[in-house]
Amino acid sequence: MRSCNRAALGGDMEIRTIDVRQDPSPATLLSVQLIEQIGDALYVERLRESVAEVVKYAHVGLLSFSRHSPPQLIGTESLIARDLVIKVSSRYIGGQYQADPVCRIGASARQWDGLVYVQRQRAEEVEDAEYRASCYETTGIVDRVSLSRSFDDGHWIAVNLYRDASQGCFDHWEYSRLMAIAPVLTTAACKHLQLIRAIGSPPSSARIEAATVAERLARLGPRLSKREFEVCCRIVQGLTAKEIARELGIAPTSVAEHRKNAYAKLSVRDHKQLFALVLPGTGLQ
Questions:
Q1: Contact of 259 with 235, CB cutoff 8 Å
Q2: Where is the HTH luxR-type domain (predicted)?
Q3: Which long-range contacts link 215-222 to residues 24+ away (Cβ below 8 Å)?
Q4: Is residue 14 within 8 Å of residue 3, measured between CB atoms?
Q5: DSSP helix/strand/coil, 148
Q6: Whether 120 contacts 78, CB under 8 Å
Q7: In terms of C-beta distances under 8 Å and separation of at least 24 residues, what long-range contacts does 43-48 make, across chains too?
């Protein structure tokens, strides 16, 4: 903090300035950077850059959870291999999330209880063999720290940070730094999600993934109607029936009918089989 020249400001009042770029606290700079980007299409990209200044990691994912539907991928970024992290995220929201302790933690939390939950999961600690193989071993991920908090009744958000084999696991100092910035990361993420939902603007990373899904689905289901195609694309993106209905401007019952017809044409029974069809190699049955 330093004083300004009073004469230059045209008065006798005392004015001091704070250069947040020089603040030694990583949480302060991180807060400023993320607040500036809340609601922006590049939020997750800025999240990737900002957290990298605090601790070394490989991938970051931002997900929204609900007790009654699969998680929604808000965005994902990587410092080393973005295609890989998109593939892992698709596996996760396609069904592997059911073996993740974060789902149990969030489901048991009360509406904004003031708590931020920090859950660490090394590859060797994952009990479910299919989940471990699909989301950790085949991708080289060795450690994950998940920062989560509830933001309204039945919903919670998680910021997941991953390390790969080339980096090794988070050490004690790095884990402590993540604990220190966890309230900032989760609070900013909640506000970002609430804002983009209010204005109906999906993050840029979700648009990129949607393009990939649409391209693959177009090759697999040429007989799908326009609405059936739109519904299936959004199911693979992790949207709920209500969210699909709101985005397409149709009733939830219409979403269910289009989904039923599309599944019959694609010869799949549920969303897991749809994921396995559209995104092969995910290990989903």
A1: yes
A2: 217-282
A3: 216/278, 216/279, 217/278, 220/266, 220/277, 220/278, 221/262, 221/265, 221/266
A4: yes
A5: strand
A6: no
A7: 43/75, 43/192, 43/203, 44/74, 44/75, 44/76, 44/77, 44/203, 44/204, 44/205, 45/77, 45/204, 45/205, 47/75, 47/77, 47/159, 47/185, 47/189, 48/77, 48/78, 48/79
Strand partners, 172: none
Contact 2, 17 (CB under 8 A): yes
Q: For every one of its 285 residues, what pLDDT tens digit does the chain have, with 9 covering 90 and above? A: 454 544 454 556 666 665 655 655 667 777 888 888 888 777 888 889 889 988 999 999 999 888 777 788 888 888 888 777 777 787 787 778 888 988 877 667 655 567 899 999 999 999 999 899 888 998 899 999 999 998 776 788 999 999 999 999 999 999 999 998 999 999 999 988 888 777 665 554 444 456 567 777 877 767 889 899 889 888 887 777 887 888 888 999 999 999 999 999 998 888 878 877 876 644 333
State whether residue 159 is helix, strand or coil: strand
Pick the CATH number of 23-199 from 3.50.30.10, 3.30.450.80, 3.40.50.720, 2.60.40.10: 3.30.450.80
Structure tokens given for 216 = 């693959």
Structure tokens, 108 = 């048991």
- CATH pick for 204-278 out of 3.30.70.980, 1.10.10.10, 3.90.1150.10, 1.20.120.450: 1.10.10.10
3-state secondary structure of 119: strand
From residue 21, alpha-carbon distances to 16, 33, 59, 184, 274 in Å are 15, 10, 25, 17, 47
